[in-house]
Amino acid sequence: MTGQAEAAAPASLAAFDGAVLTALKEAEQALSDYAAKGDRNARLWEACKHSEAAHRLADRRYHAGSIGCSSNGTPSANSSPRAAHSPPQTSSSIAARRPVPDARRRLDTSTPAQP
Hints:
Layout: H1 2-64, E1 68-69, E2 75-76, H2 81-84, H3 91-97, H4 103-107
């Protein structure tokens, strides 16, 4: 029986070596994928910050009247939002756009609205 065990030992060792090499290869691939996804995540966060900054700038410009929106909803530098797309400002239209006091509280059903 020792002859069979001696003959099987190199085969078992080769199978073990193959399993270890496969595990190391899979671990290396997983770490590489993890690093690539971390890099992509960092680029997406950077793009998100730039997008938010662009939105804030466009919003400030829009509210300042330096840009407006065309009929298809895209920003237009040559149109004024107040002149081209809005009726003349009146005191009643300005008052109608003011936030209603306690509006957030009225939406929350757990807090009763107070007059």
